[in-house]
Structures are given as C-alpha cells and as structure tokens.
C-alpha cells in the first residue's frame, strides 16, 4: 500500500484512506493520504457512497491528457457530516449531504455571482484538481472529504442515499439543460440520445416534468427497458433509416449523452424549427456538420456541463419530491477494477455505486 508523498500533504493532520491509480494503466489500489483540517466555513464528510462516472475512467487512463497521479477518483459523493467549522451555518453534524464535480471557484466572478459556479474559469474539480493552497484534490473513493459548505448540498431524507449519488453528476448534467433550454412541460417533445448512466436519468427527469420523451439508440436492445421500466413515450433506432425519416421534424430538443464518436447530422433532422441539440458527451473527434442543416429551420447545437450549486440543490429536491433516482448496481471497494473494465464495455445497468461505508475499511492492509 502506497502513501502520499508530497511535502504539502505530509503537513496535513488528518489521515485519509482510499483507492488510487498511480499511472495511466488506471489500475486502482489502496492508498493512504492526508486531508486538511476542517476550515471555519468547511464541513468534513464521512463518505457513505460514491458513484462511478464515465469521466472517472477517462481520468484514470489519462485519456484527456490532464491526469495528476496518484489519482483518487469520485465526484458523485453522498455522505454524512462528521465535523463542521466554526462559521458553518448551512449544515449540522449528522446531516446527509452530497458533493459533486466541483469543490471551489472564484466566488466573485460573473459566473459565480449568477450561481453558475460550474462555468467559473477557476472552478476547482473535486478530484484531479488543485486546491487554492496548492495541494492536489482527491475524490470520493475514500473514507472522508473536506469541502466548503457552499459546494455541498443537502440530501432529503426521502431520497435513497445510494441512488442519490449519481444525481450529483449524471443527474444535474441532464436536469440543467432541460431547464435552461426550456425543454420541460407537456407541450414539449424531447429526444434522449443514449440510454446509459446519463440517459436513463434524463428519461426519468423528463417524465417527472411531464415532457414527452423519445429515446434514440443505435440498437433496439434497450427498447423494452426504455419503454416499460423507465416510461419513455417512444424509442428510435438511429441506424434504421425508415424510423428516423418518420420522426423528422418532431422534437423540440435533443439531449445527446453519448461520449463515443458518432454523427449528429441525423439528429439535427429530428428537430423542429428552432429546435436545440444539446451535447453532454465529450467525444474525442470533432463533429462533421453542415451549416445548412442549422440554417434551414434556425436550429442550434449547444453544450452543457453539470450545474451551479443552487441548481444542483434544486435538482436534488425535485428528485426527492418526484421519486427520480438512478438505476444502480452497488459494489464493494475491492470490485472497483472489475467495474471499470465492465464500464469500458458498457456492461452496467446503469450506474455503479461503491458502498464506501461498509466495504472500504476491509481493504486496508
């Protein structure tokens, strides 16, 4: 078992334990490191569950060429407040809280003033980011985490904790563009491209908003799940030319969750005039798109990334009120490398969640 070796971290007084990757092989193993003391406006969170996001896999393998090793992933964190700073007003000891993709930002810039900390140019990632004191952040595949109270959200008692974890990234990623682009309500028809970790939650939020929703997938394999389990109103196979032709010009908006390289030109054809295609997946290759496909019908292509802290709390509260939750497979900490292999193959329905509280300690040598 390796220990954190940087001088900055050795000066921290609270020992932590988690699993980390040491290089771009992405292989995770036990890792002892340090967390800073709880600051005046910070809370210490005992991690109970942590979801596995596809971006964890990208970062573990340095596929975005920005990974800092050792790397402890995890930004879908649900836990319990175990310590609070002297100036904390938002939380009490024992509160159930969530920590998502960011743990800090400039706080005074235009984005932060507008409660869009996620678009702050100095936003600090929950893991693989650098704290303002110069230390590297480690994520939720660990026993505890320290975060400023502004960057944590309350988890209502009616929301199952394990199923709530994926909402901290996947959930807000689909909720935010639906609200921002006005794609909610019974007079709207939207498409969800890809029925995976993000897509299945997108269907559930759309139905909770009363929106008509059609799943668009490259194969028919998930049609039964989409229609019967998740309640989608329709299912389109994107490789079926007749189905796609029959649906042309029927959608007000499309939420594209696919991160693998794919053509978006056929999706543009599904949009009504003034329709919006919103990209959530970070594809490796650029898209090939004709300008005329947008000009004819004043259609638009946009991107969206998570949400600000106020909106994230709104999303969590909405999910609790309407029973929106992720379909998950709970795993033990020592299964995480197998889970990563399965995730790379798309072999999960639909989100892995690590039971940190009950399985992490047993992996400590």
From TrEMBL:
Stretches that traverse the bilayer: none
Classification via SMART domains: PKS_ER (SM00829)
Pfam families per record: ADH_N, ADH_zinc_N
Keyword Zinc recorded: yes
Cofactor(s) named in the record: Zn(2+)
Sorted UniProt keywords: Metal-binding, Oxidoreductase, Zinc
UniProt xrefs under Gene3D superfamilies: Medium-chain alcohol dehydrogenases, catalytic domain, NAD(P)-binding Rossmann-like Domain
Domain Enoyl reductase (ER) residues, every copy: 20-354
Subunit structure: Homodimer.
PANTHER family referenced in this protein's UniProt entry, alphabetically: ALDEHYDE REDUCTASE (PTHR42683)
Family: Belongs to the zinc-containing alcohol dehydrogenase family.
Protein name: Probable cinnamyl alcohol dehydrogenase 6
């Amino acid at each position: 078992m390796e220990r954190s070796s940087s001088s900055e971290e050795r000066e921290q007084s609270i020992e932590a334990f988690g699993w980390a990757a040491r290089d771009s092989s992405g292989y995770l193993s036990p890792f002892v490191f340090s967390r800073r003391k709880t600051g005046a406006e910070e809370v210490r969170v005992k991690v109970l569950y942590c979801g596995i996001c596809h971006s964890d896999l990208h970062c573990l393998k340095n596929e975005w060429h920005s990974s800092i090793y050792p790397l402890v992933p995890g930004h879908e964190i649900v836990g319990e407040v175990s310590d609070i700073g002297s100036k904390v007003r938002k939380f009490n000891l024992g509160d159930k809280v969530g920590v998502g993709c960011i743990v800090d930002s400039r706080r005074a810039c235009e984005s932060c003033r507008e409660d869009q900390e996620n678009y702050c140019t100095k936003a600090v990632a929950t893991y693989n980011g650098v704290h303002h004191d110069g230390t590297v952040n480690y994520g939720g595949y660990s026993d505890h985490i320290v975060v400023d109270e502004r960057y944590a959200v309350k988890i209502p008692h009616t929301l199952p904790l394990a199923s709530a974890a994926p909402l901290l990234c996947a959930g807000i990623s689909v909720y935010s563009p639906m609200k921002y682009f006005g794609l909610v309500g019974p007079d709207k028809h939207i498409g969800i491209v890809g029925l995976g970790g993000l897509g299945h939650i997108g269907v559930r939020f759309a139905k909770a908003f009363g929106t008509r929703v059609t799943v668009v997938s490259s194969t028919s394999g998930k049609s039964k799940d989409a229609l019967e389990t998740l309640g989608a109103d329709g299912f389109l196979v994107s490789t079926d030319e007749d189905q796609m032709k029959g649906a042309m010009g029927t959608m007000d908006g499309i939420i594209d969750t696919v991160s693998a390289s794919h053509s978006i030109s056929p999706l543009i054809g599904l949009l009504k005039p003034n329709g919006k295609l919103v990209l959530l997946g970070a594809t490796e290759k650029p898209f090939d798109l004709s300008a005329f496909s947008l000009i004819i019908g004043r259609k638009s292509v946009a991107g969206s990334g998570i949400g600000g802290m106020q909106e994230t709390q709104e999303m969590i509260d909405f999910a609790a009120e309407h029973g929106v939750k992720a379909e998950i497979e709970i795993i033990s900490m020592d299964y995480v490398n197998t889970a990563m292999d399965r995730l790379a193959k798309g072999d999960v329905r639909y989100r892995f969640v690590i039971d940190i509280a009950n399985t992490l300690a047993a992996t400590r040598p």
